[in-house]
Specification:
The chain has helices at 132-137, 162-173, 178-181, 236-247, 256-267, 288-300, 313-318, and strands at 6-15, 19-24, 27-32, 54-59, 65-69, 75-78, 84-87, 113-114, 122-124, 139-141, 151-156, 185-189, 195-203, 207-214, 223-230, 322-325, 329-332. The chain is of the alpha+beta class. It is elongated.
């Protein structure tokens, strides 16, 4: 497309008055506050940029939204009988203008899995105390190949957790193959050789939040790990920006209610990921994969995931927008 061309789009989700998603040509693209015309620190709603609103937008040659034009006030016009009716200056796109094909990934296979039984490639003498379960396991993650902003996907080895089994089942039912649906959690590596930031749950009644977790906690023999890197992060600075965006949400509660609603909508309501009228199953909630996607989209002005910027761990497994990073174990000396 050419620069400067104004297109019409429907706002699909607004998050914290700093990030939004608009549906354009069948894909949901993100926009930030500074791209909105006449933005001066107002709430998005004050400018009419709310879910369901029709806005004008401009994209650059890379497909990134560079400008959002809020819907102008409605004007009154005469109908055919001489009466007055209200009509917005931005007419909503018709159904045929918003085709239902979304950026549905095709699985590239899990080439970078790190299993507990895999042998160590070298030794390490950590200069710190380790959790007992980590020292008993006897190995740590070799982080030398990792960069800030890398994605960590996990699945447990036992298959006995009803929570993780439920997530895998929901992901499979909404349209992902079992090799991708089995990945049930996503976190972001912070580039310090030690930690990830994640939205995680302690239990159904205990709740959860966005927090920093040490990689030692994943070194206990109960997790299969997979590290992936976005092909759009080409500079170290970009990875750090994504991390900073995620860290700005530390302490924000994990949306258990939204997660349970997703389970109910899929199991009882038959929701699927590829139908545009049923893709709000996790909107407004902070869960592990949307923490990563929203932070990425805020930092880089790009858009990851399914419609509304919502994605699940299975999306991160299946997409070819990420590549696997080979990571190995180090034996604790």
């Amino acid at each position: 497309m050419s620069n400067g061309q104004i297109e019409l789009a429907i706002v699909k989700r607004v998050d914290d008055d700093s990030l939004g998603y608009a549906n354009v040509e069948g894909r949901s693209l993100s926009f930030t506050a500074e791209t909105i015309e006449n933005y001066r620190g107002q709430a998005f709603a004050d400018l009419g940029v709310v879910e369901g609103a029709t806005v004008g937008l401009v994209r650059n040659d890379q497909g990134t939204i560079t400008a959002i034009f809020p819907p102008p006030p409605e004007e009154e016009v005469k109908d055919g009988a001489g009466g007055m009716v209200s009509r917005g200056l931005f007419e909503s796109p018709q159904a045929e203008d918003v085709p239902p094909q979304f950026n549905r990934p095709v699985s590239t296979g899990s080439q970078g899995e790190l299993h507990p039984e895999a042998g160590a490639t070298d030794t390490i003498r950590p200069g710190r105390a380790l959790p007992k379960k980590t020292r008993d396991f006897g190995m740590l993650i070799d982080t030398t190949q990792l960069q800030a902003g890398d994605l960590l996907l996990t699945r447990d080895t036992s298959g006995s957790s009803w929570i993780t089994n439920g997530i895998a089942d929901v992901q499979n039912r909404i349209g992902y193959g079992r090799p991708d649906a089995q990945w049930v959690h996503a976190a972001m590596y912070l580039g310090d050789g030690a930690n990830v930031v994640e939205a995680t749950i302690d239990g159904l009644f205990a709740g959860g939040n966005v927090r920093i977790t040490h990689l030692d906690d994943y070194c206990d023999g109960s997790n299969i790990l997979r590290f992936r890197r976005s092909s759009f992060i080409t500079q170290e600075r970009q990875g750090w920006l994504v991390c900073i965006r995620a860290l700005s949400r530390l302490g924000k509660p994990y949306s258990i209610g939204r997660a349970l609603k997703a389970w109910w909508d899929v199991r009882v309501g038959g929701a699927v990921a590829y139908r545009p009228d049923e893709k709000n199953i996790l909107s407004d909630g902070v869960v592990c994969s949307t923490l990563y996607a929203d932070s990425f989209n805020r930092a880089l002005r790009l858009s990851l995931g399914e419609d509304n910027g919502i994605c699940v761990p299975a999306w991160f497994s299946a997409t070819n927008e990420f590549v696997d990073v080979n990571v190995r174990w180090l034996q604790i000396a």
